[in-house]
């Protein structure tokens, strides 16, 4: 059980530099991202006048989410989740609309289909879930976030146009995700439709049609006329059956946020796909940095439902904030732990953001001042003799102008060390050295943490550089 220096500082609402300093006094060299064991963390917390509860700080996400493997006997068949991909204008949207219109209303009560990012259709006594944002961009964006939601991709290729650049992209994305591909050769009603040419081109991209001895299922369809759509759906079910898709409905739900937005009247609304377990009204859900008890759930026909099992998309209300598409959601039991995890994630996000907002250097100082990000330039001074440290401190502090104040956060005699770099990194400071050099470790650490170390022989040069940097007039050094 560990906690990083940065997390500990955040929980205590203290600057990370303060924690790092305390650790140094204990003889421990640690960077912001260093993991501390519980004993050290609690010692530091006490030193800084804080107490904390072990379980809150040291939350183990895996344990919280109880993400245990399901026993084989608990698994039941689930319906497939399908995405439609292909080149622009080849008919993805038309196909999704056609499938929805011919298969949803039939035999089902309830209103008009609602857009909740996915819908289900009934085929015989089976169901299929379609993600209704076509294209591989959304699909891949979700996958980039670690969400593996789809089982089967329908690759739409217009019979009058053949394989195009985005068709190839789609093939590659589906392959990378290890998703089964079924080809819908579309627009066969059109004059100039040439399905065999499509088959030929598919072969060139490693998808050999079944009728030509390969294992790629191709169905000739017309999304416009509704031709062979039933056959296409049958093929989806066939492939799904071969994949033996299963899930355990008798456990707390886990799944993926398909899309989410802030609704004026209803607050944060998230469309989620349950992938395992059963989601119920009242469940406490954590999704990314959002959490909350499910207040209400609606299915893809706009009907209010009390529960949703595997492969079922629902819209949920009750989250504290709007999660992001691709966020994994979990049902959790312990509210305090859930809160701790969410806080931890928010902290990590913030840290990521801060990482992206570059650390200060003399080269970007002016930019940061202009952007209003810098009100204070923190500097660490290292010099060969104490007299120089003091002299430098005084001259540098005098540079302070209207926009920026120069603040010497640390000054000492000796080489620039790793701990100087850590302090600089934690405090967004630059290091100025006079007649000293960085140790090997320090040079490496500075490169890693993007800390600017400037070495000088003459105080005047340092002052000049910093003054220029503050005015955006520093010549870049290469
Ligand atoms: P997407 O960009 O892949 O979503 O393609 P759309 O579904 O928007 O379709 C692009 C155009 O092709 C539209 O004008 C559709 O009406 C037309 N279209 C789609 N499917 C068919 C079809 O089966 N036959 C014919 N003739 N036109 C189609």
UniProtKB/TrEMBL annotation:
Keyword Protein biosynthesis assigned: yes
Glycoprotein as UniProt keyword: no
Keywords: Cytoplasm, GTP-binding, Initiation factor, Nucleotide-binding, Protein biosynthesis
Tree of life domain: Bacteria
GO MF term list: GTP binding; GTPase activity; translation initiation factor activity
GO cellular component: cytosol
Domain called Tr-type G: residue spans: 77-246
Subcellular location: Cytoplasm
Sequence segments annotated as region (G-domain): 80-228
Function: One of the essential components for the initiation of protein synthesis. Protects formylmethionyl-tRNA from spontaneous hydrolysis and promotes its binding to the 30S ribosomal subunits. Also involved in the hydrolysis of GTP during the formation of the 70S ribosomal complex.
Family: Belongs to the TRAFAC class translation factor GTPase superfamily. Classic translation factor GTPase family. IF-2 subfamily.
UniProt protein name: Translation initiation factor IF-2
Native organism: Ructibacterium gallinarum
Parent-record interval covered: 172 to 649 of 746
